[in-house]
Specification:
Chain A: GO terms for molecular function: anti-sigma factor antagonist activity. Chain A: This is Anti-sigma factor antagonist. The complex is a heterodimer. Chain A starts with a strand and ends with a helix. By secondary structure, chain A is of the alpha/beta class. The longest helix of chain A has 16 residues. In chain A, 43% of the residues lie in helices and 30% in strands. Chain B is α+β, with helices and mostly antiparallel strands. A 5-stranded antiparallel beta sheet of chain B has the order 1-2-3-5-4, covered by helices on one side. In chain B, a hairpin with a 2-residue loop joins strand 4 and strand 5. At the A-B interface, helix 2 and helix 3 of A face helix 2 and helix 3 of B.
Chain lengths: 109, 143
Amino acid sequence: MDIANEQRGDWLLMRVGGRLDAVTAPDFDKDFQAVLDAENSHVVVDLAGLEYISSAGLRSILAAAKKIRTGGGKIVFSGLDGMVEEVFRVSGFAAMFTLYATADEAVAS
Amino acid sequence: MSILRIPASADRFYEVCEFVRSRAAALGVPDSLHMKLDLVVEELVVNIASYAYPDGGGDVEVECERGFDPLDEGASGEFFCVRLRDWGLAFDPLQGPPPDVTAAMHKRDVGGLGVHLVREMTDSCRYERRQDMNEFTACFQIG
């Protein structure tokens, strides 16, 4: 898994690529905590480069979303495709979160 | 080699995924099934490591076959099935209540989605306890 962060106006854009699974999810948790520690309150998580996600990855995403909402912030997702989109759909995450087709659309929102 | 047996630990599911992919390729299963296979294998191996062997120290055995669905004799079409065995505590993943996937975020627990994904991604699955062994079979329709 690889993560690249970029500031886009009011949004912190976090691009997550590769595989988010039981082995890599702790790395995502750590990187997301660093984003929160840097006092970012509006986060776009772009999953266009993510090819695989398991329940361990969903758990990290839900935990991240709960943390940011507890602090009054906002989190949205973009670029879902293929199996990642399917996993979001069957787990109810697609209905629970705000999704955008692309990161550009998300930061323009 | 048609059976893989390795220590069941959550960080070794890649080895099981790799084995299942190689068996799928050998049995002529389309590549389009790879991601689903990886997902189901990860969830099942992580569950075995967590619940069948909470203190560690046991093996998981993996075997794959292609044929008609052994879980549903009435089903037509061909299936690829992955069978996992362990010798840990009796653990039936299919017994738990299904998660409420329509609940609002603040009401949702973090976790508990693994078995739900296994059910969603397979065409049929079955758990059996045979003496001191757990056996889980997950089948995917391929034609």
